[in-house]
Amino acid sequence: MIKHTPHSIPFTYKLIVSILIFISMFIAALVLGAADITVQDVWLALTSNASGKNISIIKEIRLPREIAAIFVGAALGVSGAIMQGMTRNPLADPGLLGLTAGANAALAIVIAFIPSISYFGITIACFIGAAVGSLMVFGIGSLRKGGFSPFRIVLAGSAITAFLIAVSEGIGIYFKISKDVSMWTAGGIIGTSWRQLQIVMPFISLGILIALLSSRQLTILSLSDEVATGLGQKTNHIKLLLFIVIILLAGASVALVGNMAFIGLVVPHVVRAIVGTDYRFIIPMSAVFGGTFMLFADTLARTINAPYETPLVAVVAMLGLPFFLLIMHKGGKQFS
Amino acid sequence: MARLYTNNLNIGYSERLIVKSLSVEIPDKKITTIIGSNGCGKSTLLKAMTRIISHQSGTVVLDGKDISKENTKILAKKMAILPQTPESASGLTVSELVSYGRFPYQTGFGRLTKKDHEVIDWALSVTGTTEFRSRPVDALSGGQRQRVWIAMALAQETEIIFLDEPTTYLDMSHQLEVLELLQKLNLNEKRTIVMVLHDLNQAARFADYIIALKDGEIVKAGACEKVITPNILRQVFNIDALIGQDPRTRKPMCITYNLIKGETKNEENINTISTGMCVNY
């Protein structure tokens, strides 16, 4: 079996290779698409102030869009990895634990009540929504004596998610803003602007940075609370910190693209098969792989039925489902 | 006075205390075993002494300091804990798991120093797990896995090691393997060992000091001969025990026992006649 491979090749090489794949995917994503664009155009757009139709397409349409794809992919990959490590639950991801649904509900509420709200305001609302959603899940999951079990968290997560989706849809119908809300939440990166990126990118960068710095703590925490305490970790501090990171990453992702299932779930599992169970390796790799995966999915979405776009969520689900089935087949081995 | 002791320790909720005003000293450089029936608070006591759970009132004192006020990383250099049936993320190799024992000594990203590597190698060799070092932990047998977890606790380089039922789910020879390893660590390395055990004879054979609990209170704490007696066992486990002496170790041993039924329910005591039994191995 492949059991030994995660440890036989040094992590640095694996990271270098993935970054090379990532860069190639980035260039491919900029070149491929409905408009005819050459690698030279991409080079000029990235390195010079030259102008022209193709260069404008790259600078104003494709570049912000692909950067959004990278950041969202990285954010969801990292937040999924953190959640799986923290809850020791192979099914944990921002979609399942109420974060995405919470952010969506918050989005619907602000669009309904403060239609003139700025993009920054929407981003903050998404953070609050994600926090409230996940607190509801963790709260209900740990209501019973004995704290939260991974199993109970999943049950609470599905219930709260269904409830919050109902809230956002209810608001959408009642205030006749369903179209606006679903435009946000449909899970697209069409028309991402530089202005949106400027607001969201710092949050995601900060989240990933904190995640990287606390990755060693997460490894210890992922063993078990008792072991982590015994090794001298302040588990409650670390959990709170990681919780904030998850909210930053998931909230920012929703503000940028809305719902995006599967990424947070699948990316860490694939990454674990490559680098093993140490979160010092899983976190950076999840960021790189999540970004690459989203670039790939978006390029596919733009090209399989060009000049029409296939919805990105559909492509992600299509790519994610086989992975998901594979995890099921392997029985979430890392966690059994 | 011992380095580690509890003072009027209450654990649980005010309406239902699991451990009640318990004061006990843990003798230094000895093996202490906590015995008692299911739900008597043995594991709870162990967890409270190792700050895994917080207690309601009273204190746990280590080296003159209340552990609830002490820096947890400093404590991690003084005491190591092996929880009951620890889970481990699979795919983790033995040496990776053992290296986590160095966590309290690390800062930043946790690159292992030369000293760390030396301690890890030593922990692996003492526990006889060096040969598995690059194998995944979940590919090992129960006894091997338990030894690996003990190696992790050893890598913490603490003078006190707590173990919560380290022999559960192991067959007889693996149980002995683990207990003999702990005995060796106690004798050669002068480690203080505190563990919860279910098997009375193992407790008597390996422990220098036994704490017998019943409903969260100490029935008797002392040397094996003082605790493994028909009277104490009757109180603690509600059994009528026949105590003899282990011909090999000279320690007391419970040769056979019957449940005491008649006292409470007016039942007849049926003393079954067994056809053959293994009293020692």
Describe the structure.
The complex is a heterodimer of chains A (336) and B (281). With 336 residues, chain A is mainly α. Helix content of chain A is 76%, strand content 0%. In chain A, helix 4 (53-87) runs parallel beside helix 10 (215-223), helix 5 packs across helix 6 and helix 10 crosses helix 14. With 281 residues, chain B is of the alpha/beta class. Chain B has helices at 42-49, 72-76, 94-99, 114-126, 142-155, 172-189, 200-206, 224-227, 230-237, 262-265, and strands at 4-13, 16-26, 31-35, 57-62, 65-66, 79-82, 160-164, 192-196, 209-214, 217-222, 239-245, 252-259. In chain B, the strands form three sheets. Chain B has a six-stranded mixed beta sheet, with helices on both faces. In chain B, helix 5 (142-155) runs parallel beside helix 6. The longest helix of chain B has 18 residues, at 172-189. The mean pLDDT of chain B is 86. Classes of the chains: A mainly alpha (336), B alpha/beta (281). Chain A binds chain B through residues 3-4, 6-7, 88, 216, 219-220, 222-227, 229-234, 272, 276-278, 280, 333-336, and chain B through 47, 50-52, 72-77, 79-81, 83, 86-93, 96, 100-101, 103-104, 106, 109-110, 134, 136, 138-139, 156.
